[in-house]
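so the lab meeting is tmrw and i was supposed to have these ready like two days ago... anyway. pasting both below. for each one the top line is the aa sequence and the line under it is the structure tokens. i havent really looked at them closely yet so no promises
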Amino acid sequence: MKMGHKDKSEVVELEVVSEDIRGMETMVKGIGAAAFYGVCSVSSAFVTKTLLDTLHFDFPVTIMVAQMLFTTCVLEALSFFDVITLPSYTLKRGMSFFWPALFYGANAVLSLSALSHMNIAMYGVLKRCVPISTMVLSVAILGKGWPSRWTMVTVCLLSIGCIVAGYGDLTFNLLAYSCGVGSNFTQALYLLLVQRFAQSQKMSTIETLQLNCFNSLPILVLAALANGEVQTLWAYPVQEHPFFPVVFFFTISVGMLLNYSLFLCTGMTSALTTSVVGGLKAMVQTMLGLVTFGGISHNLPTYLGITLNLVGGVGYILVKYRENNKKLHHSIHKVMSFSSLVKNGGRDHGAGSNGFVPPASEDSPEGYNVKDRSHSHSEPTVVELEASKK
């Protein structure tokens, strides 16, 4: 039984509403994931800096090993009590996530090494070069081409600000800056690989976190053995720091949340957006670092660099918001154009009863040939309408 024009238009109008709702839900979830990642990242940097500097626990790789062990235990416990659904780890599943975990481990070691040898404010500024590394590497890894002109401009502003602020840092440390630059590239690599993995394998954030922990753990243990941390760890004077157990537990707990929020944000948005959020949180981190741990040089290049970082970060958010809004409205416009076409009974002879002239094929629903509509004299069925959109 064929549907009338009114019934068809009502069905398509419902699709317009559904498309609008889905687009808004996706945008809100993406913003929430990005905000969650930013909060976790700032918190992790300060808690870790307290453990490294204030309590003089200069064992960054050991911290990461403890964090991976703690995360694995928490996930397995939640799975055992049926709080979450998590498949067992297998070598086949682990190998599929080998490269993201490898670069994750390398980034963790380099980042913590840089943080332990430089002030927290300048560490935050240096880490803001991650967006430009991500943008350049994404062309080769994701194969999606270059982003829009304004996106590239805002990302470049972030990086220029980093260079200017670094020039103004009078407490320059070659080892710290070398580790920081290395961590930028390894972070960009694993973010892009996580994005590609999440899109191709369609795994949940929890499963991705599980694979990352299992794969990273042996890499981090080998790194701790190689740099001598295991041999010198036993000499740490725990008795001199009564709050050490509490701070250590908070450090690995916040680190676990940071990893979860990072994979969540990357999977729901993109590697570039995650890195830019990291740049914005680093700006907050820098401002807070001015009044907490200190160590930053107070001069014109430093503040000029921080300002450029801020302008670039905020500009990126505005550009992505406008681009996402444009995509959403374009998608809805295509469905609305199709709705008007249905109301006109599929005719292509001028404007319909509502004065609407069907748009060119570029704006029409994908796969629906506007020019060929005049050859069909019968009303399309619902099945034909759905097939035409696919």
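ok protien two:
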Amino acid sequence: MEAGTLVSDREDVSVLFEQQKHSRKCQELSGLFSSVRRVRGDGNCFYRAFCFAYLESLLHDVKALQRFKEKIITTSEHLSSAGFDQSSFQLHLNTVLNVIEHCEGSEQDEMLFRFFNDRMTSDSVVQYLRLLTSAHLQNHADDFCNFVEAPSLQEVEAMGMECDHVDILALTQALDICIHIVSMDGEDGQLVHHVIPDGAEPSMHLLHHVSHFSILGPRPPP
């Protein structure tokens, strides 16, 4: 990735494994996906990839964008019920709403790409998603109390801290979004596929490899 880039243009998926393109995992991956958007590895890659990929999936669907905007507005209530003061999240909430509103206009693709590569805007979106994740964990503490490796709320809320399965589960539940995570970290030479929640139709496809997330673009059906 170029210096300063937070989310890259679409690239051929082969850029991910130029030295291993004949391995079983890489051949399977390239058979399923044609492109990748690389995301800056700064500890925020999951949240940045998650929001960019979801908004990209909604582009050119005004009704879907409006529904997502309305959903985001209601999430402020979740943060308040978890004890967050409005002053701690209102600016970040406004940033998310501003990005969605610009995606409803013309040149959506260009605007989305520009927003997510503007550090201040992109990080503000990430911060809101982190606060929302923390709020969901607090508001549904009984559902997550049995996770042995659950992170501290400070780790969830802090920028630059890598997420884990609990964070991903909480955010997808909070926004009612299904994701497909393809992991390269399996030991048997095969990709590992996780659909969260199980059985739903995913809105995005993310690649997980060595604690890092990228955005995958599926090949069109034959």
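from a quick look at the 2nd one: The mean pLDDT is 92. The chain has nine helices and six strands. will dig more after coffe
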